[in-house]
Amino acid sequence: MKNLFKEFLKGIIKENPTFVLVLGLCPTLAVSVSVINGIGMGVAATFVLVGSSVIVAMIKSLIPEKIRIPCYIVVIASFVTITELIMKAYSPALNRALGIYVPLIVVNCIVLGRAEAFASKNSLRSSFFDGLGMGVGFTLALILISGIREFLGVGKLLGHVLIKGFEPVFVLGMPSGALLVIGLLLGLFNLLKPGREK
Amino acid sequence: MKERLIVSASPHLHKGESVSRIMWMVAISLLPAGIAGVIIFGLSALSVIILAVVSALVTEWILQISTKRKITIFDGSAVITGLLLAYNLPPKVPFWLPIIGAFFSIAIGKQIFGGLGQNIFNPALVGRVFLMASWPKYMTSFTVPLSYDATTQATPLMLLKEGKFAEHISYGNLFLGLRGGCIGEVCILALILGAAFLFWKKYISWHIPITYIVTVGIFTYLFGPSGFLSGDWLFHILSGGLILGAFFMATDYVTSPLTRKGQIVFGIGCGILTAIIRLWGGYPEGASYAILIMNAATPLVDRYTKNRIYGNR
After folding, report:
1. Which band of pLDDT confidence, cut at 50, 70 and 90, is reported for residue B11?
2. What is the ipTM of this complex?
3. Shortest Cα distance from A2 to chain B (angstroms)?
4. B273: CB partners within 8 A, 6+ apart
5. pLDDT of residue B51
6. Which residue of A170, A176, A187 is in closest CB contact with B135?
7. Using CA atoms, how far apart are residues A30 and A23, in angstroms rounded to an integer?
8. Pick the residue with more confidence: B51 or B158?
9. Of B301, B294, B254, which is closest to residue B274 (Cα–Cα)?
10. What is the pLDDT of residues A135-144, one digit of tens each?
11. Taking a C-beta distance cutoff of 8 angstroms, is the pair A172, A153 a contact?
12. What is residue B14's three-state secondary structure?
């Protein structure tokens, strides 16, 4: 049980997909304009991650070595389709805001990376917790980035104005601002990383 | 210069030049343009200049204290960054704008790369472009020269972009700086005085600024408003931030090519980009973007314009 908890925790800080593994930057850059988009994207990716990790761990002995990537993609694509249909049915506004980035979860390197690097080599239970941890780590990173960008770039948080008279830093709401914020946060995480070479 | 350099046997005389001496000389050469800006736009311009310079120094000091590096705020480079940033701002901006701009220039434009000599982009222009993208409404409202109040007017290049060529102002006024614009860019006379001082001290060579200005002139003459070979090239040279950019920002030692050949390529590139942005781009003025883009291309230019070693291939 303790080991499973460790698999879950490592995705949040020690192997955070965005800040340490630097995977899945494309959706991170694109959807982190507002916190609600970030949460939506994070939850969708977490669902796909957990689902595909579990299935891949279950069928890992059936998959031939040479065509393993197409097999993973089929599993992942099924979960992405489920996610997209659910999102279209229950929150069409979020689906419109995320746009092409929901179907693009299929090629998200976090999902494929976990299937290839973890789920295909480990047991079902630890794959489940690994996928969950990675998903939560991704979601938290998205909330952090989109929180900074929404607060400074638009002057709001979750759609509410926090400080009256605050003049938003317009550039942070634009794509170049996403690169700037992610770059600075990556640098900060590297600075705080234990055992960094001085 | 380099090809005529003969290193004789020691003892050698030291000329007494150092990075910080050159930086302070450049800062002095920038003073006439600043004084002209204050005369033209009033004391609000002076407060923008002081705020930008002081915040640049404070930012550099705080960052170097917190990263436990040598304190180099007296080498003059932060002063130049602050001055150039202020010269690129309109005279009446909220007090926090030059402070944030100077902080961004020094922190993101310079120190994050490792300080003086390591930055790939001109720090002052990084700050200006950041402010331009973040608060465009403050960055594009210019006060009327010699009026000292809050009335605003468009710059000559903005008028040109809107197609109001009839309100053309005379070349004499453009040369003296009696037009709407940023604090340090308006008075061409003062800028040329400062540049002449740098030429006299041999701190800058003609390769970048002259090719830059001539290219803009030729390009805007070729592609004029009423067909080929009809452009008002003198107007384009005298307006906008071209003269300030060409003499003081494109010639930054750190972010421009090392060889003479490379510097000519750099100048022509800046000129073509500036003219393209002015004539067909979305912004009325493009000097700062042109210089930043060519800054990014500098390592490439350096690689392709390496001097041939004598006797080698």
Report:
1. confident
2. 0.81
3. 39
4. B286, B289, B290, B293, B294
5. 94
6. A170
7. 14
8. B51
9. B294
10. 999 999 999 9
11. yes
12. coil
Which of A167, A171, A187 lies nearest to residue B133, judging by beta carbons? A171
How many other CB atoms are there within 10 angstroms of residue B96's CB atom? 13
Say how many C-beta atoms besides its own lie within 10 A of residue B34's C-beta: 22
Cα separation, B30 vs B27, whole angstroms: 5
Per the listing, tokens 């494109």 go with: B250
Answer yes or no: is pLDDT of A36 > 80.
yes
Note whether A170 contacts B136, CB cutoff 8 Å: yes
Dmax (CA) for chain B in angstroms is: 65
Find all residues with CB under 8 Å of A164, minimum gap 6, and list them.
Answer: none
Decide if pLDDT at B248 tops 90: yes
Cα–Cα distance list, B78 to A119, A184, B49, B67, B102 (Å): 53, 22, 13, 17, 9
Closest CA to A132 of A41, A12, A3: A12
Cα separation, B246 vs A184, in Å, equals 31
B130 touches chain A (CB under 8 A): yes
pLDDT band for B299, please (50, 70, 90 cuts).
Answer: very high
In DSSP terms, which residues pair with B223 in a beta bridge? B228
pLDDT-derived band of residue B92, with 50, 70 and 90 as boundaries?
confident
- How far, in Å, CA of A74 to CA of B22, rounded? 64
B133–chain A Cβ distance below 8 A for any pair = yes
Rounded CA separation A154/A32 (Å): 12
Residues in chain A whose beta carbon is closer than 8 A to a beta carbon of chain B? 167-172, 174, 176, 180, 187
Regarding predicted confidence, which is higher, A175 or B161?
A175
The pLDDT value given to residue B168 = 64
CB contact under 8 A, B135 and A167: yes
Task: Give the number of A-B residue pairs with CB atoms closer than 8 Å.
Answer: 16
- Cα B87 to Cα B131: distance, rounded to the nearest angstrom: 13
- Cβ atoms of residues A130 and A119 within 8 Å: yes
Higher pLDDT, B246 or B115: B246
Mutate to test the interface with B, among A167, A186, A188, A190 (most CBs of B within 10 A): A167
Chain A positions in Cβ-Cβ contact with residue B112 (cut-off 8 Å): 187
Min distance B248 CA to chain A CA atoms (Å): 26
DSSP state of B306: P
pLDDT tens digits along A94-121: 888 888 888 888 888 888 888 888 888 8
Q: At what angle do helices B287-304 and B123-134 cross, to 10 degrees?
A: 140
- pLDDT of B246 higher than 90: yes
B134 near A CB under 8 A: yes
Give the least confident one: A9-23, A56-70, B260-274. Answer: A9-23
